């Protein structure tokens, strides 16, 4: 799970992107944070799927 600070920053950059636009450094930061978020999300989702047991 990402820290609250990183999630807040992702949300701030998304909002700013829609309203004002982002400079190049902010775009790079946003891309990096999104990639980290997706990586963590996929790891957690895979863990959940690995815990599922099917029964007949």
TrEMBL record:
Q: Which branch of life, at top level?
A: Bacteria
Keywords for this protein: Cytoplasm
Looking up Pfam families in the UniProt record yields: DUF896 (PF05979)
Q: Which organism is it from?
A: Maledivibacter halophilus
What SUPFAM superfamilies does the database record attribute to this sequence? Answer: YnzC-like
Alphabetized InterPro entries for the sequence: DUF896 (IPR009242)
Predominantly, its location class is cytoplasm
The places in or outside the cell where this protein is found are: Cytoplasm
Q: What is the recorded name of this protein?
A: UPF0291 protein SAMN02194393_01892
Cellular component aspect of the GO annotation: cytoplasm
Q: Which family, according to the similarity comment? A: Belongs to the UPF0291 family.
């Amino acid at each position: 799970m990402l820290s609250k600070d990183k999630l807040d920053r992702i949300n701030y950059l998304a909002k700013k992107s829609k309203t004002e636009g982002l400079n190049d450094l902010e775009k790079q930061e946003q891309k990096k944070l999104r990639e980290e978020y997706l990586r963590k999300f996929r790891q957690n989702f895979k863990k959940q799927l690995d815990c599922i047991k099917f029964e007949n």
